[in-house]
Amino acid sequence: MKDIKTLGELKRSGYKSKTIKNELRDNLISRLKKNEKIFDGILGYEDTVIPDIERAILSRHNMNLLGLRGQAKTRIARQMTELLDEYIPVVAGSELNDDPLMPVSRFATDLIREKGDETPVTWLHRSERYAEKLATPDVSVADLIGDVDPIRAANLKLSYGDERVIHFGIIPRSNRCIFVINELPDLQPRIQVALFNILQEGDIQIRGFKLRIPLDIEFIFTANPEDYTNRGSIVTPLKDRIGSQILTHYPKSIELSKQITHQEAKLNSEQKEKIEVGELLKTLIEQIAFEARSSEFVDNKSGVSARLTISAYENLVSTAERRMLLNGEEKTFARISDLSGAVSAINGKIELVYEGEQEGAAMVAQGLIGKAMRNHFISIFPDPSKLKKKKQTSPYQKVLDWFSENNEVDLLINDVERTYKTVLDQIPALDELVKQYAPGLSKNERYVMKEFVLHALAEHSQIGKAILERGIQFKDLFGSVFSPGTGEEDLN
Question: Which has the closest alpha carbon to 189: 232, 149, 152, 222?
Answer without folding.
Answer: 232
